[in-house]
Write a structure and sequence with these properties.
alpha/beta; Indigoidine synthase fold; nine-stranded mixed sheet; binds pseudouridine-5'-monophosphate; binds manganese (II) ion
């Protein structure tokens, strides 16, 4: 029987011997950045993970197989096809498997495949969240539900202000998902380091994050964790410029009556158009920054798990 999940050889070997692995998503490749920057960035992100001591596992669905660890040719295939690739969140995975289709995985779907493969740390740019106007649209990303019941630590630069960041934090609190600021007391707002929204937890070292992961899962809790890592100061954008672009993008989405899973890619593309190159450079810098931190967390997590393989379960 053909297996639904295929783990790349290097990734499988690392996992089998307890060495650090970092999962990476693929919606950011096909839907988040233009070709060829998307492929260049995806490869640079993998290199950054390696340079920081972990094995990268870029995740996607290729011809109906859930893959943890893509070949370079597969990354290029997703990057070139761009928006033509199906954006795959949780509910899309069975369709891709049933019909042998390709899919670029969102944070939610990447978490699912990472967890099935045994990968506990995942780096991305920004997570999905509660959209502005959700009180009437009910648009809440499946990423948040996934964080509530899938045991993966997601390293991100917070969430883009296309979302309602305050409601996003409330949702995560309700669902029992820890949100830990890395070297910050505030939720970062993707392109800019600060949102003004206070976080309850802060860690300044990767080891502290690894300890938090082990304690969460040692207690038998089903959730993931959000590690919120601010964009490096030199690449943090002026929030007023971003806010103006977001306002225009939201109006354009309303006029075009964009709905469902098209909303996020539509807004991201509009903002890119409105802010030209600067936002893309900041986006690339923050993804690399997250990849480096995720690798360092994976290294500490692997070290602690080797030292104490059976964490206390109560
Ligand atoms: N936010 C970004 N860049 C992205 C995404 C979100 O700044 O590329 C992508 C991620 O893959 C995320 C998905 O999981 O969009 C969320 O989509 P939705 O809001 O439809 O759940
Ligand atoms: Mn949505």
């Amino acid at each position: 029987m053909k297996s639904y999940l295929e783990t790349g050889r290097e990734v499988a070997e690392a996992l089998a011997s307890g060495r650090p692995v970092v999962a990476l998503e693929s919606t950011i490749i096909s839907h988040g950045m233009p070709w060829p920057k998307n492929v260049e960035t995806a490869l640079l992100v993998e290199e950054t993970v390696r340079a920081n001591g972990a094995v990268p596992a870029t995740i996607a669905v290729i011809e109906g197989v859930l893959k943890a660890g893509l070949e370079r040719s597969e990354i290029e295939r997703l990057g070139k096809a761009g928006l033509a690739v199906i954006k795959a969140s949780r509910r899309d995975l069975p369709r891709l498997v049933a019909f042998g289709l390709d899919g670029a995985t969102t944070v939610a779907a990447t978490m699912i495949i990472a967890a099935k493969a045994g990968i506990r740390v995942f780096a991305t740019g920004g997570i999905g969240g509660v959209h502005r106007g959700a009180e009437t649209s009910w648009d809440v990303s499946a990423d948040l539900e996934e964080l509530a019941h899938t045991q993966v630590a997601v390293v991100c630069a917070g969430a883009k202000a296309i979302l309602d960041l305050e409601k996003t934090l409330e949702f995560l609190e309700t669902r029992g998902v820890p949100v830990i600021g890395y070297g910050t007391d505030e939720l970062p707002a993707f392109y800019s380091a600060r949102s003004g929204l206070k976080l309850e937890e802060r860690e300044d070292e990767p080891e502290g994050i690894a300890r938090r992961m082990i304690a969460t899962w040692g207690l038998g809790f089903p959730s993931g964790l959000v590690v919120a890592n601010p964009v490096p100061a030199s690449m943090s954008m002026n929030p007023d410029i971003i806010e103006a672009a977001i306002g225009d993008a939201l109006k354009a989405a309303q006029t075009a009556r964009v709905k469902g899973k098209e909303v996020t890619p539509f807004l991201l593309a509009k903002i890119k158009e409105l802010t030209s190159g600067e936002s893309l450079e900041s986006n690339i810098a923050l993804v690399l920054n997250n990849a480096a931190l995720a690798a360092r967390i994976a290294v500490e997590y692997a070290r602690l798990m080797r030292a104490q393989p059976q964490s206390a379960v109560c």
